[in-house]
Automatic annotation (TrEMBL):
ATP binds at K81. It holds the Pfam family Pkinase. Residues 51-310 form the Protein kinase domain. This is MAP kinase-activated protein kinase 2. GO terms for molecular function: ATP binding; protein serine/threonine kinase activity. InterPro entries: Kinase-like_dom_sf (IPR011009), Prot_kinase_dom (IPR000719), Protein_kinase_ATP_BS (IPR017441), Ser/Thr_kinase_AS (IPR008271). It comes from the Eukaryota. Belongs to the protein kinase superfamily. Keywords: ATP-binding, Kinase, Nucleotide-binding, Serine/threonine-protein kinase, Transferase.
Length: 357
């Protein structure tokens, strides 16, 4: 499903919110006196003097993404996000762009896409990024000749490590989903990297985020219920991805977004016997901890990395074959892509409005 994004435009409009929740945030581990990442602006040369734009890789409302190659040896390849400056005329749009590049400059981790350089020219911003050529996580899992619980565990561990690092740097991703879990290359043991930080935000204090955004099936209940939130919303999204990777189908799925949101509010999901009988109890236990509606009680990404399912012996998980679940995942992955194409032209805010009916 496509993302939704709604910002309150009328200052008189009131939003009902829940109580302030005190908790020990993972972000407390970061020293607030540490400087944020320095944005790597390049002023000594122009973008087109350094790079040659190649094929179009994708497009959105504010930007297009191209492949690019350096003009001088050794001819490195990159992905370049090209943003028209005239589309960032409002203070809010410029601030969102600054936040995105500031966050990407701050995050230096092997399982997170890397920002290389930025260029500011008369009509465009050019954001030069690491090029990830291995495709999406779900596509790779669907293509495996054999699929075991260990394969799922090893893939998910890389994503949890990336998110735990983000949270240690006071960053909430806010749009974790399969499309944003990409492989570095086409090798079988390729690194998985978390990408697309367009909705990411620094969490300056607990429950300080209010913007309603995300992708419906992966959205935490506190966001849907208009309760101020923080990075713990990401942990719910991780639970949804983990459930889908293991079971082959999403925990919350309905023909309408309103129906999906109702399932999320109620925490209503099922471990169907046809797909979950052979899966280890530890995996189910971890999912239950992540899909806990109360963020105060929800398992964090750092706690998940210490969970017995993550640290247990791989030999036992290797014996648990998920071929039946893989077939179900292939069907769901195809359906998900059809929906993504069909919904590409719809207004993003439309999703939130529909859900309120």
């Amino acid at each position: 499903m496509s993302c939704f994004h709604l910002c309150w435009k009328d200052p008189r409009e009131r939003v009902k919110v829940g109580p302030f929740i005190e908790y020990a945030s993972a972000s407390a581990k970061r020293n607030d006196k540490e400087p944020r990442g320095i944005i790597p602006w390049v002023h000594s040369r122009s973008f087109h003097h350094t790079y040659e734009l190649r094929e179009l890789l994708g497009s959105g409302s504010f930007a297009v993404v191209h492949s690019a190659i350096t003009r001088e040896p050794p001819f490195h390849s990159y992905a370049v996000k090209v943003i028209q400056r005239k589309k960032l005329l409002t203070h809010k749009a410029l601030l969102a762009f600054k936040d995105e590049v500031q966050i990407m400059a701050t995050l230096q981790h092997g399982n997170i896409i890397q920002l290389h350089e930025l260029y500011k020219e008369r009509d465009f911003f050019f954001v030069v990024l690491e090029k990830l050529e291995g495709g999406e996580l779900f596509d790779r899992l669907c293509e495996r000749s054999t699929y075991t619980e260990k394969n799922a565990r090893d893939a998910m561990r890389m994503i949890f490590e990336a998110v735990a690092y983000c949270h240690s740097q006071q960053v909430a991703h806010r749009d974790l989903k399969p499309e944003n879990c990409l492989l570095k290359d086409t090798s079988e043991d390729s690194l998985i990297k978390v990408a697309d930080f367009g909705f990411a935000k620094f969490v300056e204090r607990p429950n300080s985020l209010r913007t309603l955004l995300g992708s419906p099936s992966y959205t935490a209940p506190e966001i849907i219920n208009y309760i101020p939130y923080d990075e713990r919303a990401d942990n719910w999204s991780l639970g949804v991805i983990l459930f889908t990777v293991l079971g082959g189908y999403p925990p919350f799925y309905h023909p309408t977004i309103h129906g999906t949101f109702q399932q999320i509010r109620q925490g209503s999901y099922s471990f169907l016997p046809d797909f979950w009988t052979g899966i280890s109890p530890d995996a189910k236990n971890l999912i239950k901890g992540l899909l806990t509606r109360d963020p105060r009680e929800r398992t964090t990404s750092e706690q998940a990395l210490q969970h017995p399912w993550m640290t247990g012996r791989g030999e036992l998980l290797e014996q648990r074959c998920l071929s039946n679940n893989q077939e179900r995942l292939q069907d769901y992955n195809s359906e998900r892509k059809r929906e993504r194409r069909a919904n590409a032209v719809r207004s993003a805010s439309m999703y939130w409005l529909v859900s309120r009916r």
